[in-house]
Write a structure and sequence with these properties.
The structure is a single chain. The chain has 892 residues and is an alpha/beta fold. It is 52% helix and 8% strand. It is built from 27 helices and 13 strands. It is elongated, with a radius of gyration of 46 Å.
């Protein structure tokens, strides 16, 4: 009895102790997480001794305590410090399992094991653990202070690294054996052996099987046969189910087809019955109503025949007569000072339309262009270049890896992915070092590549592959393009064709230094227009202050006017574009459309009206055209225009760029001097599409693109393209030679005559071109006017010749001032003042009141009242303008 109670008491005591050990093991687990997290999130920048100032707040999850604890552990034990949480985890697991752990006798052997491991880890400082030491900033001691003093300073000198390593390996194994214990080791081996024997016995028993007289191999064969039979039955059932489902679907389709046929037949019967009823006279309909309906039908047929006859007659007249030249505006010298009698309304001169292009307008074939030269780009050794990039960046403590390359026709882009703790700005700041290491002509860094987790490094190829204009227009992207106004720009970095729609841009700015490829880009754009759009679809206004770039495009049917060379005429041409824009907006308001695409795609419905029994009434010509062409204004050198008439041109450009998108008027502005006084903020704000070729400095690149980078281009068509709402894109412009341009232009001229806007030409001809001798002549006249012997009315003949131009300026600007005439006509103040005085004498403008503009007393756009002496001349000018307006079928 006493023995039993003693055994039960000892069992309870042992159970209590085991429970106590398990509670300690559970509590140790969260404690172990502190050193583990300190080591995992260690960052050497948290330590003030290594980084000044340290990170604030610290990157270590345990804070400063964890950072300094991990730093001390790494300094003393090196990478071996990771065995501390491992030993703690094993100790906690044993306690949780309920085992008795006697730590006292194992502490010495565990310390000896750690010391030996530090020495062995020290041997791999320069080989195995180099990368880890770089990240932890603890070179060159992987074993800490223990490994450095014992292995490097002592054992490596006396025993060599090999001998010292063998000695430490032996000590480490012996210490591990003693720390585990021989009894524990033998018990573990015995348990492992027993487990293996029991497993083998179970396998033998399973192979013996039940007493059915079959060998294990036969049973396995039967098993496989039964599995195959079950699979065969499942396949057969699935096949039958699919066949039944197929028959059901076919039956449903046949039923649906039958229902549709019956519905169509019923609808056809209903239509036939309605048609038969419409042929029969309606019940209750009077004979007068029937006769009225017959008259309406006859009137419609007669109106259609009359329209066909008028069209044929107009076509014959246009083919027989050339376009009428605009008559010059009469001089004010022919108008006497006395008042003329009242002038009645004069008949408008007949409008002579310009010869329209043929109906089947042939687009220039691709065969007019030169054949595509054979050859490919030489990208060099891509792998070697990638290795040089990685090694150069590693020398500056910027570890990266090459994750991809994109070979292109001119440059090759290398995609680099830096380490997680590396800023991409460090790679961008090493551009000059990378260029020197690669011996490259230029180098551009994209940090990062838009839309990718990588930094791009663009390096020129050893031999560039030429990008020809024919290669672009023969490509699939050009033929599949749905652009309204396609721009054939070239190829991007990856070698894909770069086609862009100017209608979406909606305006384009092209800038670059001399010889960088700007003019070639403009020629490629213009030839793309000629090879893809007819004069009914696109009209052009070309401005060439240099007089040599666009000369070959004269007499094209796409041109509204011949190529404009005079800057003063450019200002008027832009103001004409503003008037055309407002005219189109009024037209859109009239027909209920919001933009040119909706206007050109609308359904035109005409309804004939009947007045009396005489026949159809003539409602007059319809002034609403069926389609409107796009208008593209190309200015080759904005700098020269801004220097000559900048005050007049800049507001016009600003208004056009902000309002003309919907009406189909678009601008392409080019300059080789991209400075802030040429590309002003007002112009740049409304021109989102920009192309930058090579420039001399980063300030010019920022002026064009609002970003640097154009100064790093290699020239010869290498460009940066910024489209609306997107990132910069590098591309190689398409090359088109002068011979190709000549052949395309000659083909277009041979198949269609020019269709100029005679009214616009007449108004441009009235503007006096800028003459370098004007300033000198103005100064001479002013001096002669001040001489005592000069007559009061001297210079009257010259002023009379300038009077029509002065009237045109006042009519366009709606302002009557001496300074306005002085600026617009390029004359001196004295001549401008005399012109204004004559206009006041003849009742055109009012007297000067204060410092403001004079009041305009007559309507210069319409018939001038008869009480003004200028009535006859104004009426003649109106007749001349009407003679050049063109017919409603005129595409402009």
């Amino acid at each position: 009895m006493d023995a039993k109670s003693k055994d039960s008491g000892s069992d309870r005591l042992e159970l209590e102790r085991r429970r106590y050990r398990r509670v300690i093991g559970v509590l140790l687990f969260p404690i172990i997480l502190f050193p583990l997290l300190s080591l995992v999130t260690y960052n050497w920048r948290d330590i003030a001794w290594l980084n000044a100032p340290p990170l604030s707040p610290p990157a270590n999850l345990i804070g400063l305590v964890g950072a300094w604890s991990a730093f001390i552990g790494y300094s003393v034990m090196g990478l071996t410090v990771w065995v501390v949480p491992f030993f703690a985890l094993v100790f906690s697991g044993l306690l949780l399992y309920g085992r008795i752990v006697r730590v006292g006798r194992r502490v010495f052997w565990m310390l000896l094991f750690v010391v030996a491991l530090c020495c062995l880890v020290q041997l791999g400082s320069a080989t195995l653990f180099e990368g880890a030491l770089d990240r932890l900033n603890m070179k060159p001691n992987a074993g800490g202070m223990i490994g450095y003093w014992l292995m490097t300073r002592l054992l490596a000198r006396w025993f060599s690294p090999v001998g010292g390593g063998m000695l430490m390996a032996s000590i480490m194994l012996f210490a591990l054996l003693m720390a585990v214990g021989l009894r524990t080791l033998f018990d573990g081996l015995g348990r492992l052996t027993g487990w293996w024997e029991s497993r083998q016995a179970a396998v033998d028993t399973e192979e013996a099987g039940p007493g059915d007289g079959l060998t294990p191999r036969e049973r396995e064969r039967q098993k496989r046969l039964s599995i195959k039979e079950a699979a065969r039955k499942a396949k057969e059932e699935a096949r039958l189910a699919r066949a039944a489902e197929r028959e059901r679907v076919q039956a449903e389709r046949a039923e649906e087809r039958k229902r549709k046929e019956e519905a169509h037949a019923a609808l056809a019967r209903q239509r036939e019955e309605a048609r038969a009823l419409s042929r029969e006279p309606r019940i209750g309909e009077s004979p007068a109503a029937e006769r009225l309906r017959q008259r309406i039908e006859a009137a419609k047929q007669a109106a259609a025949a009359e329209r066909e006859r008028q069209r044929a007659l107009a076509a014959q007249r246009a083919a027989a007569q050339p376009a009428a030249e605009p008559a010059p505006v009469a001089s004010l010298a022919a108008v006497p000072a006395a008042a003329k009698p009242a002038v009645a309304a004069r008949p408008t001169a007949a409008s002579v339309p310009p010869p329209p292009p043929p109906e089947a307008y042939p687009l220039p074939p691709v065969s007019l262009l030169n054949p595509i030269p054979k050859g490919s780009a030489d990208h060099g050794d891509i792998d070697k270049t990638a290795d040089i990039l990685v090694e150069t960046l590693r020398q500056f403590s910027v570890p990266v890896e090459v994750v991809g390359t994109t070979p292109g026709p001119v440059v090759t882009q290398y995609e680099l992915r830096p380490a997680p703790n590396i800023k991409v700005e460090k790679i961008a700041n090493l551009t000059a070092n990378l260029q020197m290491a690669l011996e490259a002509r230029s180098l551009r860094v994209l940090a990062p590549i838009p839309g990718k987790n990588a930094v791009g490094v663009e390096i020129p190829n050893r031999r560039a592959c030429p990008v020809t204009f024919r290669e672009i227009v023969e490509g699939e992207a050009w033929h599949r393009s749905t652009c309204e106004i396609p721009l054939a720009l070239g190829k991007d970095v990856a070698g894909n064709d770069l086609i862009y729609d100017l209608a979406k841009a909606p305006h384009l700015l092209v800038a670059g230094a001399t010889g960088s490829g700007k003019s070639v880009c403009l020629n490629a754009i213009l030839n793309g227009f000629l090879m893809s759009r007819t004069p009914e679809q696109l009209r052009l206004i070309l401005v060439d202050p240099k007089r040599v770039e666009f000369t070959c495009y004269n007499d094209l049917p796409h041109l509204l006017v011949p190529v404009i060379n005079d800057p003063k005429k450019v200002a008027f041409g832009l103001r004409w574009a503003i008037m055309e824009m407002e005219k189109r907006y009024r037209l859109f308001q009239k027909v209920g459309c919001r933009n040119i695409v909706a206007f050109n795609n609308r359904q035109v419905v005409k309804q004939e009206e009947l007045f009396g029994d005489e026949g159809p009434a003539d409602a007059g010509p319809d002034d609403t055209p069926e389609r409107l062409p796009y208008i593209v204004i190309v200015v080759d050198e904005v700098a020269d225009i801004m220097a000559a008439v900048g005050k007049e041109v800049e507001p016009a450009i600003s208004r056009l760029t902000s309002l003309s998108r919907a009406v189909g008027i678009h601008l392409i502005l080019a300059t080789q001097r991209p400075s802030v006084d040429v590309i002003t903020g007002t112009i740049k704000a409304n021109v989102p599409g920009r192309i930058a070729f090579k420039v001399s400095q980063s300030n010019d690149s920022r002026t064009i693109l609002d970003n640097p980078g154009a100064e790093e281009l290699i020239g010869k068509g290498d460009m940066l393209f910024l489209r609306e709402g997107s990132q910069l894109m590098r591309a190689q412009g398409a090359w088109v030679s002068d011979e190709e341009i000549g052949r395309v232009v000659d083909f277009v001229k041979a198949h269609c005559r020019p269709c100029y806007d005679q009214a616009l030409i007449g108004r441009l001809d009235k503007i006096k071109e800028i003459d370098p001798d004007d300033a000198m002549s103005d100064e001479t006249e002013e001096d002669s006017a001040d001489e005592p012997g000069a007559e009061a009315g001297g210079g009257g003949d010259d002023e009379d010749t300038l009077m029509p131009n002065a009237l045109e300026v006042i009519r366009m600007t709606r302002r009557a001032s001496t300074t306005m005439l002085q600026r617009r006509l390029g004359i001196g103040y004295t001549r401008a003042a005399r012109l204004m005085d004559k206009l006041e004498e003849r009742g055109i403008v009012g007297p000067q009141v204060g410092s403001g503009t004079r009041e305009i007393l007559v309507d210069l756009d319409h018939e001038i009242p008869s009480n003004t002496p200028f009535a006859d001349q104004a009426a003649a000018a109106a007749d001349d303008a009407a003679a050049g307006e063109g017919s409603p079928d005129d595409p402009v």
